[in-house]
Amino acid sequence: MKAEKTDRKEQVQELTKKLEDGITALFESDRYLEYLTIMARFHHYSYRNTLLILLQCPDATLVAGFHAWKQKFGRHVKKGETGICILAPMAYKYKKESKKQDQEVVILEPESEDTKHTKKAEQSEELEEKSEQRIVGFRVVRVFDVTQTEGKELPQLGVDELTGAVTDYEVLIQALLMVSPMPVSFIEIESGAKGYCNVTKRVIAIQKDMSQLQTVKTMIHEIAHAMLHADNDKVERKDAGTREVEAESIAYVVCQYLGLDTSDYSFAYLIGWSSGRQMPELRASLHTIQTTAADLIDRIEEQISQTNARKRKAESEDSGQEISGVAGDYFEIYQLKENMENRQFYFMDLSFWQSRGVSVEHTRYDVTYTAPLDEKTTLDDIYCRFNIDRPSDFFGHSLSISDVVVLHRKGKTDSYFVDNIGFQPVTDFFKKEPKDVAV
C-alpha cells in the first residue's frame, strides 16, 4: 500500500508538471497573442457601469457600443436587439462672468522727522472679467453584448465546453457524489455558469444536461472548492484568482489521472484567471494542488471499488448463490440507494429531510450489511466498528449521517437514523414490518 501511495504521488507530480508545460506553451503561442490583441480593444467599465450591465443582462460577457462592434470587430448588432444602458462621462464648458474693482493702495515711505506722506493709487474703472470653466457630467449610452451581434468570429482560447462520453460515467458520478463535502444538485443555472459552490448554504450546483466530460470536470472543480475554500474561519481567504487556479488545476490533474483529457478547456480557463505570464498563483499553490488532487483521487478510487464490490455482491445474489444467514437477534445497516432521487439527501441530517417534508423510508435504501447482535452491543459500538475497524466483508461507505441502523432484538424491530449528533429513532422506517430473515 505504501508503494502504491508513492507511485500515485509521483503520477500527480508528473501531471502537475504537464499542466505547467501546457500553460507555458499556450502563453507563447500565436493564438494567445491574437487573443490579447482583440481583448485589448474592449473597454473596461467602471464598477457602477459593470453593475448596471449585470442588472440588465446577467449573462453578458463582452460588451461594446454599436459603432465599435462594426468598426473594431467586423460585427454588427442584430436587428431588434435592445441595448444595455450605461453612463458615459461628458465634459461641458461654460463662461463665468465676474466683476472686479481695483482697491486703494497705500504706500508708506520710511518715516523721518520732516517727511511722511501717503500715495494713493488711482481707482480704476470697474472691469468686467470672463473666465472659462469646465465640468464633467454623465449621459446615457447603449452598449451591446457579443450575443446580440453577428459577423466576424472573435478569437478564443480553448473551447467553451468539453464534449465526449466517459467510460463508466454513472459509477464515476456516484463516486463524486459520495466524496463531495457538500450535497450536489443538478439544476438549470440561470447565470450561464457551468457550476458553483455556495459556501454559505453549503451546496454545490451543477448545470444539468451538459456533456459527460464537462459534467465530471465541473463536479471535480466545485468539489475542490468545497474541500479548500469553504472554511473561511480556519483558512485565510485567498483571492478569487488563486481559488480558481487551484480548483481548475486539481480538476485537470484528477481528470488526467482518470484518463480524461481536459487540456483544451483547463489551460485557457487558467490563463483567464492568472495575473501574469508566469502564473504566480499556480506556482504558489503547487503543494496544495498536488496534495489535494492525490487525496481526492484516493477517495474516488475507494468509492469506485466499493461500488463495484456491491455490484458483484448483487450479481451473486441474483444468480442464486447461497448467502450466509444469521440466527437469533441481528442488526442491519441501510445506506441510500445510488440514484438521482436520493442525491440531495446523501450525508444530510434529519432536519434537512424534515425541512423538505420527506420521510426516512426503507424504500430509499439498500441493506449493505447484516450481522448477529448480542445483548451488550450498542448503537455506539456499531458506529465505532463501521468507522474504525470495518469488517472485511463490508462494502458500503463508513457509517455516516443519513444511514439507518436497524436492530432486530427479541422479536422487536427498532430503526435509528444516524444524525449529526447521535442516533434518532425512525418509527415509520418500515411502512410494513419486514419479513423475518431465514435462520
What does this structure look like?
There is one protein chain. The protein has 439 residues and is an alpha+beta fold. It folds into three domains: 1-93 and 129-156, no CATH class; 158-323, no CATH class; 330-425, no CATH class. Helices cover 37% and strands 22% of the residues. It has twelve helices and 15 strands. It has helices at 2-27, 30-39, 47-56, 66-73, 169-179, 212-228, 240-257, 263-273, 280-284, 286-318, 350-355, 379-385; strands at residues 63-65, 75-77, 84-100, 106-108, 118-120, 127-145, 149-151, 184-187, 195-198, 203-207, 330-336, 365-372, 404-409, 412-418, 423-425. Strands 12-11-13-14-15 form a five-stranded antiparallel beta sheet, with no helix packed on it. A three-stranded antiparallel beta sheet has the order 1-6-3. Helix 1 (2-27) crosses helix 8. It is elongated and about 100 Å long. The two termini are 39 Å apart. Mean pLDDT is 78; it is low at 102-109, 111-127, 319-325 and 433-439.
Topology overview:
Blueprint: H1 2-27, H2 30-39, H3 47-56, E1 63-65, H4 66-73, E2 75-77, E3 84-100, E4 106-108, E5 118-120, E6 127-145, E7 149-151, H5 169-179, E8 184-187, E9 195-198, E10 203-207, H6 212-228, H7 240-257, H8 263-273, H9 280-284, H10 286-318, E11 330-336, H11 350-355, E12 365-372, H12 379-385, E13 404-409, E14 412-418, E15 423-425
Parallel strand pairs: 8-10
Antiparallel strand pairs: 1-6, 2-7, 3-6, 4-5, 9-10, 11-12, 11-13, 13-14, 14-15
Helix pairs in contact: 1-7, 1-8, 1-10, 5-6, 5-10, 6-7, 7-8, 7-10
GO molecular function, one term: methyltransferase activity
Domain YodL-like: 331-429
Biased composition (Basic and acidic residues): 113-123
